[in-house]
Amino acid sequence: MNEEQDMAEARKTLAGYRASIDNFDAILIHTLAERFRCTQAVGVLKATHGLPPADPNREAQQIERLRRLAKDAHLDPDFAEKFLNFVIREVIRHHEQIAADANGG
Q: Where does residue 98 rank: exposed (0-12), middle (13-18), buried (19+ CB within 10 A)?
């Protein structure tokens, strides 16, 4: 195979990888959207029943669980924890807003 053919094959392979990456990005966005739809419902339930927006025990359990899953999947557990902490902070922010709205602002 000559250099030109080799480069063409490399570009084709790269395009295939990028198509898969694009698909995974779409999956992540749709999965996060579904997750936030569920957590919004949890926020409404908590606000309706006067439960606190944050649940530190649940959060700690989830972080521990996600770290184990990450390790089993050969993903950096620290990265997974940072990602989950980011999501949890956003969920709590939503829950606090829902509670404030339920209590008149």
A: buried
